[in-house]
Design brief:
heterotrimer, A alpha/beta, B alpha/beta, C mainly alpha, A: Rossmann fold, 2 domains, 11 helices, 13 strands, C: MetI-like fold, elongated
């Protein structure tokens, strides 16, 4: 499978704050790549940086951002506009804010296609209906004439997915697409994304804070902390042998039925993600880490743990809890 | 067992008139339909259901924020409607879902936390100061953070403030309406642990509302599942997770995503039809989405059954 | 774009500040009495025109009174009326709007009815009737305008209160045992204050313009008080020979109202971005 998106050495600064620090990951065609971390870890900023949608005070720098074989760093705003929503589509957390409340679903869906492709309104509507049916919206002809507020949260997110697929994108960036939804709807939406990935050979970059979601949908995981990818690996490997204390902490946080006896505390990570300033040295997780030592103030070494599985840590947990 | 339960809800219903627009008829929206339960002191009742199932309306009625259309809430045996607002505040306090809208953006954290004390009108300023400071520390915030305004705190810290405000009057019951669903998983765990710790130390009783069964399992001693205003199943937490009887409970349980790769995504099997409280189905309200529906499910309301001592079930299936 | 709006906000503040200082200290600084007539020195043109003198920088009016002094005194009257009117109407409108928005139901219906009634009353005609019945005075102008200009306060206060009353911090205050009055005062008012500030600026500008119109019609401030509207009215007989007589107070009026509106615009934008953030 070929890579659709390759990011290397990505850094984003907002003034003196370093939101993302040399992040790197690769999304392949027909594969779901999850970026996981707490709020403030830089995962959303990473996705915005790829699409060149950073706020005005944000500065992006990278060694490479290769999309479909071409480095898009030097692209003009005009060229980026041509890619966004066309070959690189997005879904956001709150579908209500991404849909325009004063236009019908139909006009918003067709507008995307007509902006990028030279098609008639009738053709665009036909495609919109077909896609709405595909993403599980019943009675698409009726829904086309409705306004966003007339739909439920789950339906709106399906509309967003249909909209993202209008131009047959190669890469889909989904930022917390199910966080605002009920758990029952969440499972349905994630299933839909997984089916579409198979069917269309989409590359999906999924951003989430929930390792429960990651485990079920991702092919490859990058765990981000304080703007850095601190652990990355194939999903099965990473969950079988989580090497970074932070990754372990995140896994323990997810409530699992029957895992913890009543009265015992749920695993949690104390504290919050620190804000990174320039000149910071050492491991950013050391303030919250149970196994931190003096060594953690030094530059963090990278350990290769297995094929495609690496970790940035002074004291990675290797097999059966023993420390290297 | 004590003789009077600390919280008891008897045949509680709430209906709204929904204006359908200029030329549409007004419809009756039955948000909560004939709910009854009792809760012993020190226990935690988890209420689970999707959005629109009436769980928040139920919480608002227990808090006295919403007048029931019929039925009554009893706290320590006394009807809620007979209590004045200060007495009610000393017994029941809320923790709301969204920590960004539950704190007044124009007040300092200390003022927010001390509001229930000040509203009582019987506390000396130094007493208010002392108790506020003690509670700030108890929920894991610094005195310095007490001088800030909400926008300077993170989501998890704000939720700690909301918890401190709820506890300052030392109430008996705390109603937690989705207290962690707006938070990160890692922060959610912190808050759940804090709530559990406080419950044991202060001998509190919780009503804990969530849409995620896995979260409820961790805190609740018994669980009530709601669907379109009705209680469809109620049981002790361990029993409910071991033998979920109602197909809806089974679907909710199946939709929990645990961090176990290789299991793939569950087929929840609820279909695309979303529940709409303004158009209630006939018979069993769940039948349009139920995979196991029998012919009588569409026509007859399901009977209330008690499969075991603690379990309550509303379903035609056995 | 933000830089431009910031500049206009600063300009607005500057104008309002200068007028405020002039209104407070001007009549003492100019060195003339605003009411002292000198029939020998009537209609002296301003200093930059032919026949002008440095003794009267903006010339004199048809009764020989120093025009600069009268203009500064007029600023005092304009601001006095603007501020007092807005305080009166602000208190009435905000109370009604918050009550209606907070309680809803019958009370809200009553508030809406009052707003509708108020909107169907023509301000100038009512002022005419009042002056006809009671006679004109400064207090009467303030009272009439104050009792009539509260509608916008009520509409804005009602709409913003309705948005806020369903928020969870208001629910939390209910559950804390706060009284309705305390909730309106501590939870709602501070959070709608920024919107009301914007209305204040609009209404001050409107009150100043209305006062000028009423005075021009002879229904406002009674002579010899130097209101800008009255100055224009008094000067209109001479405007074909000495156009500056009405141009100077007209320009002052325009500048002040523009300044106030620029401040209002700036406030609205500032609060607008705050809401989004």
């Amino acid at each position: 499978m070929s890579a659709i998106l390759e990011v290397e050495g990505l850094a984003v600064r907002f003034g003196p704050t370093q939101a993302v620090r040399h992040a790197h990951f690769t999304v392949h065609q027909g594969e779901t790549h999850c970026i996981v971390g707490e709020s403030g870890c830089g995962k959303s900023v990473t996705s915005l940086a790829i699409m060149n949608l950073l706020a005005r005070n944000g500065h992006r720098h990278a060694q490479k951002i290769i999309f479909a074989g071409e480095d898009i760093q030097a692209y003009s705003d005009r060229q980026m506009e041509e890619i966004r929503g066309n070959r690189m589509a997005m879904i956001f957390q709150e579908p209500m804010t991404s849909l325009n409340p004063s236009y019908t679903i139909g006009s918003q869906l067709t507008e995307v296609l007509r902006r990028h492709r030279n098609v008639s309104q009738a053709e665009a509507e036909a495609r919109a209906m077909a896609l709405m049916a595909r993403v599980g919206i019943t009675a698409p002809a009726m829904r086309l004439r409705q306004y966003p507020h007339q739909l439920s949260g789950g339906l709106r997110q399906r509309v967003m997915i249909a909209m993202a697929l209008m131009c047959e994108p190669e890469l889909l960036i989904a930022d917390e697409p199910t966080t605002a939804l009920d758990v029952t709807v969440q499972a349905q939406i994630l299933r839909l994304l997984a089916e579409l990935k198979q069917e269309l050979g989409l590359g999906i970059l999924l951003i989430t804070h929930d390792l429960g979601i990651v485990a079920r949908v991702a092919d490859h995981v990058s765990v981000m902390y304080a703007g850095e990818v601190i652990e990355s690996g194939r999903t099965a490997d990473l969950f079988a042998r989580p090497a970074h204390p932070y990754t372990r902490g995140l896994i323990d946080c997810v409530p699992v039925p029957g895992k913890i006896k009543a009265g015992e505390p749920l695993g949690s990570i104390p504290g919050t993600v620190p804000v990174m300033k320039e000149g910071f040295q050492g491991c950013a997780f050391r303030f919250r880490c149970a196994s931190a030592t003096d060594a953690c103030t030094q530059d963090v070494p990278r350990h290769e743990i297995g094929a495609q599985h690496h970790v940035l840590c002074h004291h990675p947990v290797t097999d059966k809890g023993s420390r290297a | 067992m004590s003789t009077t339960p600390i919280l008891s809800v008897s045949h509680l219903s709430c209906q709204f008139k929904s204006q359908g627009g200029l030329f549409q008829p007004t419809r009756l929206l039955r948000a909560v339909d004939d709910i009854s339960f009792t809760l012993e002191e020190g226990r935690v009742l988890g209420i689970v259901g999707e959005s629109g199932c009436g769980k928040t309306t139920l919480a608002r009625m227990i808090l006295g924020l919403q007048k029931p259309s019929s039925g009554e809430v009893f706290v320590q045996g006394a009807p809620l409607s007979s209590l004045d607002r200060r007495a009610r505040a000393r017994l029941i306090q809320p923790v709301f879902q969204d920590p960004f809208s539950s704190l007044n953006p124009k007040q300092t954290i200390k003022d927010i936390i001390s509001l229930p004390l000040r509203a009582q009108g019987t506390f000396e300023p130094h007493e208010i100061e002392r108790r506020t400071a003690a509670l700030l520390e108890r929920v894991g915030l610094s005195l310095e953070q007490g001088l800030r305004v909400p926008s300077e705190l993170s989501g998890g810290q704000r939720q700690r403030v909301a918890i401190a405000r709820a506890l300052i009057l030392e109430p008996r019951i705390v109603i937690c309406d989705e207290p962690t669903s707006a938070l990160d998983v890692s922060v959610q765990a912190q808050i759940l642990n804090l709530l559990d710790e406080l419950r044991r130390d202060l001998k509190l009783t919780y009503v804990f509302i969530s849409h995620n069964l896995a979260v409820v399992e961790h805190v609740a001693s018994e669980v009530m599942v709601m669907y379109l205003g009705r209680m469809v199943e109620r049981n002790q937490t361990a029993d409910l997770f071991k033998t979920p009887r109602h197909p809806y409970t089974q679907a909710l349980l199946a939709s929990v995503l645990t961090p176990e790769p290789g299991l793939g995504l569950p087929d929840v099997g609820l279909g695309d039809i979303m529940p709409d409280p303004a158009h209630l189905p006939t018979g069993c309200r769940f039948h349009p989405r139920c995979l196991k529906a029998l012919p009588q499910c569409a026509t007859q309301e399901p009977p209330l059954r008690k499969p075991t001592d603690h379990a309550v079930l509303e379903c035609h299936l056995t | 774009m933000p830089r431009l709006t910031q500049a206009s906000f600063v300009i607005g503040l500057g104008i309002v500040g200068v007028v405020l200082i002039a209104a407070l200290f001007g009549p003492w600084l100019s060195g003339h009495d605003a009411f002292a007539q000198d029939l020998n020195a009537r209609l002296i043109p301003p200093v930059w025109m032919e026949g002008g003198s440095t003794k009267h920088l903006l010339g004199t009016d048809q009764l020989g009174r120093d025009y600069l002094t009268r203009l500064l005194y007029g600023a005092r009257i304009s601001l006095f009326i603007g501020v007092l009117t807005v305080i009166t109407s602000g208190v009435i409108g905000t109370s009604l709007g918050v009550l209606g928005g907070f309680y809803g139901g019958r009370i809200d219906d009553a508030v809406l009815f009052l707003i509708t009634c108020r909107l169907s009353i023509p301000v100038v005609l009512v002022a005419l009737a009042v002056v006809g019945l009671i006679g004109s005075s400064l207090t009467l102008v303030v009272a009439t305008l104050g009792l009539l200009l509260w509608d916008r306060f009520a509409v804005v206060a009602r709409a913003t209160t309705m948005q806020i009353r369903s928020l969870d911090y208001v629910n939390a205050a209910w559950c804390s045992g706060s009284s309705p009055l305390a909730i309106m005062r501590d939870e709602i008012l501070p959070n709608i204050a920024s919107h009301l500030m914007v209305v204040c600026t609009l209404e001050i500008a409107l009150a100043i313009l209305l006062e000028a119109s009423l005075s021009f019609l002879g229904l406002g401030v009674p002579p010899p008080l130097p209101s800008w509207g009255l100055m224009i009215a008094e000067g209109k007989d001479y405007m074909f020979f000495s156009a500056w007589v009405i141009m100077i107070p007209g320009l002052a009026l325009f500048t002040l109202v523009l300044g106030i509106n620029l401040v209002g615009d700036g406030l609205r934008r500032a609060f607008g971005t705050q809401v989004i953030k």
